[in-house]
Write a structure and sequence with these properties.
With about 350 residues, the chain is mainly α. The relative contact order is 0.07. Keywords: Glycosyltransferase, Membrane, Transferase, Transmembrane, Transmembrane helix. Its main location: membrane. It is a multi-pass membrane protein.
Length: about 350
Amino acid sequence: MTKSVNEAAEAAHDTADTAEAAEAENADTEAAEPAQDSAEAAEARAEAADAEPEQQPAPAAKRGPVRMVLGVLKTARPRQWAKNVLVFVAPFTAAQITNGGVLVDALIAFAAFSLVASSVYLINDAIDVEADRAHPTKRNRPIAAGIVPVPAAYVAAVVFFLAGLGLSFLANPQLAIVLGVYEAVQLGYCFGLKHQPVIDLAIVGSGFLMRAIAGGVAANIPLSQWFLLVTAFGSLFMVAGKRYAEIMLFERTGAKIRSSLKKYSASYLRFVWATAAAILIMSYSLWAFTLREDSHHSIWPMISMVPFVIAVLRYAVDVDGGTAGEPEEIVLKDRILQILGMLWVVTLAVTFYL
């Protein structure tokens, strides 16, 4: 009997020990789980801390009078003033570029057109400030970066325009009309027409045409129909080539493009620049025949057709390859194109001045 009681007591003791061990194990497990949760939470907080700086916006640019003035000048795009050399084309082809008075008027037209064009750039960047801030590279433009406040950009644009308009009266009051028309057309482009297909091509192309017209108006030189045709379709050729390069870049890389390009196809733009190139070559050839008659049947106008046509075809190679996004860069980098351009200018100089 005593032995049975002792065995029962031992069994109860073993059961109690087993229960205590289970409770201890459960306690250890429960303690380990919060520790594991804490470690995972700490790791998640660390990852969030590492990712947080990437989501923070770029710090605002410091403002100051000097920085703002430099920002305005940068937004005026002085590099684009090279386009305004087109004002010298009319005096050159009229054999008047060596005339001191004509040259001064052309220089005034160059300066006036540069100021007016800069006013358009300022307004365009002020309008597109929000879109530029979301762009990976345009966000560094002075207005988008906050260096130049939007109201200051509008004020500077008015100053640039009035300065250019006032300067134009020194050459010819009719030059002010050309500049006014240019400003109105370009503002229409800035305020919405740039999103309209075909219209945007015509407006951008008209900018080059108006530069050539401005040179003739400033110096009071009549412009022939052939001169206007060559200038107009040469402008359309370059603009359509530029848009074609942009859409080819989009198709290759998926890069962000202007909204109007979404309504174009590569084949359509190819058709436009090919048509413009054909009319450009034909118009220049007919102009060369006219120059030959006016220059006592000189052979040089006919010779000028050779470098001109080859230069157009050479530039078309860049357009066809989708690398004509920046025409001025192509002209500055392509040595063969530069040589062809020099030969063309020399043949015309011999035609007009010898």
